[in-house]
Amino acid sequence: MRIVVTGREGQVVRSLVERAAHQASIELVALGRPELDLTRPETIRDAIHAARPDLVVSVAAYTAVDLAEDEPELAHAANAVGAGIVAQAAAATGAPVIHLSTDYVFSGEGEVPYMEADPTGPRSVYGRSKLDGEIAVAAANPHHLILRTAWVYSPFGKNFVKTMLKLAESRETVSVVSDQWGNPTSALDIADGILRVADRLQTDAAFDAFGIYHLAGTGNTNWSSFAREIFAESSKKGGPYAEVKDILTADYPTKAIRPLNSRLSTDKFFDVFDWRAPKWNVSLAPVIDKLVEQN
Question: What residues does the RmlD-like substrate binding domain cover (predicted)?
């Protein structure tokens, strides 16, 4: 199966490359700038057409959540217009599209995990651009699977885990918000979930359960407890450690509003694909191992 994925350097792309390397039936082609630039629509169609995909995985995105408040046009161009053209280009080659989305499409209200059919209500430019992207993808390609995820980390790129370990190299205490809740999700688990979907699409010619799914780590926590688990795992390996001080979102203002509730229910994904990500703290341990080893 020839899988074309948008982007080259992101956490999920690099995780897909790592995981796909162990599957002989998968040929993974990563397309990034300048060959494929989400803000330059003319590059998207040509790059995807030339790659001859059996499946397109739409991962590349504008992810600077706070900066998006100052660059709404750029965020919309990449996350909405660009994503729609990726899906359209996939449809033109006869390929289904898997599109990665986010918990930011929800308002962040309530204290229970969001279901796929729950009303959306993004409160940031980034969240709105991603929701518009979902709408564009669905309209452009009937054979779409939109996978919402949250709190992504990995050994690659920039993420909360790497930030915490870096801060602990120079600080004895770090302040972390305790009133935002979500599912920490390893990008390696996202890659495994995507490849599970790809296998189903390849082996089940009658598959028709297209639509929106949530794909995230199992279980939930808040950011400060997540940080404590990071440092606990790091200290076991002789890596950086710091004490964590709980603060509230109000104590750490940001330009973009963060959802207080980012919990996502993954029951639908499990029901259809018979796969669920490991417990979030179980997936965290090998990522910490690799990061500590690298340092």
Answer: 1-291
Other residues' Cβ atoms within 10 Å of the Cβ of residue 285: 16
Number of neighbours of residue 113 by Cβ within 10 angstroms: 19
Nearest Cα residue to 8 out of 55, 52, 59, 43: 59
Tell me whether strands 152-153 and 185-186 are parallel, antiparallel or unpaired. parallel
**Sign of torsion over alpha carbons 36, 19, 204, 213:** negative
Per-position DSSP letters for 94-145, written without gaps between them: T--EEEEEEGGGS---SSSPBPTTSPP---SHHHHHHHHHHHHHHHH-SSEE
Which residues are annotated as catalytic? 126
Mean pLDDT of all residues belonging to the chain: 96
Quote the radius of gyration of the chain (alpha carbons, Å): 19
Taking the alpha carbons at both ends of the chain, their separation in whole angstroms is 36
Give the CA-trace dihedral at 29, 35, 41, 47, to 10 degrees. -40
Does 23 score more than 90 pLDDT?
no
Q: Are strands 55-58 and 144-149 parallel, antiparallel or unpaired?
A: unpaired
pLDDT of 295 strictly over 90: no
- With a cut of 90, say whether residue 294 has pLDDT above it: no
Domains and CATH numbers, the chain: 2-159+185-218+263-279 (3.40.50.720)
Whether the pLDDT of residue 289 is over 80: the answer is yes
What's the whole-model pTM score? 0.96
Look at residue 57 and tell me whether its pLDDT is greater than 90: yes
